[in-house]
Amino acid sequence: MTDNEFAALPPGVSAERFRAAIAKFRDAIGQEHVVVSSERVAPYAKIMIPEEEEKHMPAGALMPKTVEEVQKIVAVCNEYKVPVWPISTGRNFGYGSAAPAKRGSMVLDLRRMNRIIEVNEELGYALVEAGCTYQQLADYIEEHDLALWLDTPMPAPIASPTGNTLDRGVGYTPYGEHFLFQCGMEVVLANGKVLRTGMGALENSNTWQVFKWGYGPYLDGIFTQSNYGIVTKMGFWLMPRPPVYKPFLVKYPNQDDIVTAIDTIRPLRMNQVIANAGTVSNALWEIAVGTRRFELWEEEGQIPDEIVTAYAKEKGYGAWNVYAALYGTEEQVAVNWKMVKGAFESSGGTLMTENDMDPDDPLWQYRKDMMSGTLSMQEFGMYNWRGGGGSTWFAPVSQARGSETLKQMQLAKEITKKYGIDYVALFIIGWRDMHHIVDLLYDRTDPRQMRAAHDCYGELLKRFAKQGYGVYRANTAFMDEVAELYGPVKHEVNLALKRALDPNGIIAPGKSGIDI
Length: 516
Ligand code: ADP
What we know:
eight-stranded antiparallel sheet; binds adenosine-5'-diphosphate
């Protein structure tokens, strides 16, 4: 046998030692659940971010079925210094998919741990194993005719509440800030012990999924965007299905109208008139979801504004498009609608509701679905804009103020233009913040485009940071750079926790720039 019998080797581990570790993994979880052959490892290395797969090549994958098996895995990892990269479903597209930050980690694929342990209609919560998908939950809710809604991120059916929440992802209903609505975790620590957070640590407790804080330091946060433990179960709240749901769209004709759009939404959002995480997408976002680039523009270089504007006009898209919704009883929605109507109409936007829409309009349909937690894959259409499977999300956070938008838009446009990348953008409106989401779409089969997307992301990161803007989440190619921007003290604390909880560094080395 030669060394290249493996797709990659864990750093500092010889092929011989790795073979011995594999034998132990096989004993622990069964031969067929330990993957090391290059062909079977290859799908775990498939990424959309602008970096070579080789840099993120896993040494293999492990697919445990139970908490005890995860405990056995960490024991072997510690003994042989083989690191694992936990994923729940690995659909973290645009941030690194299933592949590890560092070459040579083994993917700890929790897809077989996918039980729905409880869905409680009365109290509106669910407790699931990490690998449980949104689709499974949607099917369960339908089958049992429960008056509950999910809140899903973009690749909803195939992604998991656990993975998305642990990476602090967002959705689009009033429960859109996923970590805020998370309640209770079960975590296998690097030393093999099992921690239940919050009220879950108490014997005979029935409050694990209803009270977030427990007693003493609140720990759930340190298991998100981190590498301090392997989350095997997670609780989270589900929204009671409201009697009335009224989604709406406001179109603004000019690029500068983004200022007014945000300043109109903010007070409505802060006062909970608009309860959900609404979005404001630019014309190119609307276009890219359903169109191929060559239908508008075949040249290299950023697509010119005039082309986008003309096409948007033809199709009836705004330069900016607000999608938000009202939820509640008929009376509540009627009162809130008056406020929404007054505010948006006097802001110069064109307000549209279900009655004004073509029921077959896919753009309207998918927003309507997402803001009511209905699963949709429509937004995936965006990956065909350029083709070639390249995408990475640049996602800086700002105050939810109109005055923040133009400078961010201009800076992002200037930098993306320099690299020949189109400015496909969306603002997600939180309670007081915005996530400015820019999807850098490029063709991964073209090395020049890949390099451009990589360098473009790097420059965006640096120049936005100079203005005081940081990203809320980062892809695996740039985790160290992002961690550095958040400063040495934060980094020191992150490392101190890592040393205390995982002295051999066996869990997800490199996650969020944390590596010892
Ligand atoms: P998705 O639900 O989008 O498929 P992933 O499974 O790709 O999410 O998870 C996103 C990221 O969250 C992973 O790259 C990993 O860093 C972290 N993560 C996911 N699941 C776990 C878990 N069970 N324990 C610890 N970290 C996890």
